Amino acid sequence: MRTRAFTLPLLGIAILSLAACSGDATSSNEPKTPLLSLLATSGPGDDIQWGPAPPIFPKGAEMAVLQGDPSKAEEFTVRLRMPNGYKIAPHTHPTVENVTVLKGTFFAGMGEQFSEANLKAFPRDAFASIPANHAHYAMARGQTIVQVHGLGPFVLTYVNPADDPTKR
Length: 168
What we know:
Blueprint: E1 2-8, E2 13-20, E3 33-41, E4 51-52, E5 62-67, E6 75-82, E7 87-92, E8 97-110, E9 120-122, E10 127-130, E11 136-151, E12 157-158
Antiparallel strand pairs: 1-2, 2-3, 4-5, 5-6, 6-11, 7-11, 7-12, 8-9, 8-10, 8-11
């Protein structure tokens, strides 16, 4: 088994690729079939290129794409950085949304009406998996960073069209 590591300088992402040789004694020493690729940043939040979140999100959040293209039908990983008190109105996604809390406290509730009384707190290191097409909403306490991964395209549809920031 060979191990190769390289860095994507623009994103500050290190890739560790573990691969096996074909087993054919006459083949070159280069790996033929990747077994595992690990994507890692150099540290918590180091060198991540943050920018404004897409306009479908309320103003104030920032997003970084770590893997894939969330607009395409492929695996993706993004991070969303939200200020204290940031709210996302009830919405759905056509695919499963997997959320890991990296910093702060992320609150999520299920349903078509935003209700702070029904929010569940997800502290740092908590994980939530929200099924496709299930209405849910969110709020942040303190600066909160979540990592979202799943299969794209990542589409956010507000239950109440008036909550959609792109329609204002």
